[in-house]
Amino acid sequence: MRFGLVDHAYLCFHSAEPPRDVEWTAFIDDITEKGDEFEEMLVFSFGGAPTVVQQRQVASLWQGRRRGPRIALVTPSAVARAASAALNWLLRQPIKTFTPTELGTCLTYLELTLSQREEMTSKLREWCRELGIPFTPPG
């Protein structure tokens, strides 16, 4: 799992494995600390989806805020999409899902600037390389 601010938007990246608790705790701590610095969040997953307990933690975080970010999930995984649908029951603003081939449409949905799109795509490529995932995001 990788995550962080990328040009005033937030990017979260999952491999095919579910997040380990230590990773998830670090992620929750990071978005708690930086939550006022972004209004858009892109979650890119190769199938790794949060556990039910992890879903409740993030839902609780967003429910405690007046307004959560616009969130988009890009994944080829039906399991990750189902986890997203379950999480939507707990969120004020639902997560919109896309397939990897719809990354451009996803970035448009998030209303990212050209600079943000380029930075997000560059970071996705970097994280895929770091984790040895044979995927190159379109764009």
Automatic annotation (TrEMBL):
Organism domain of life: Bacteria
Q: What is the name of this protein? A: Uncharacterized protein
Q: Which organism is it from?
A: Labilithrix luteola
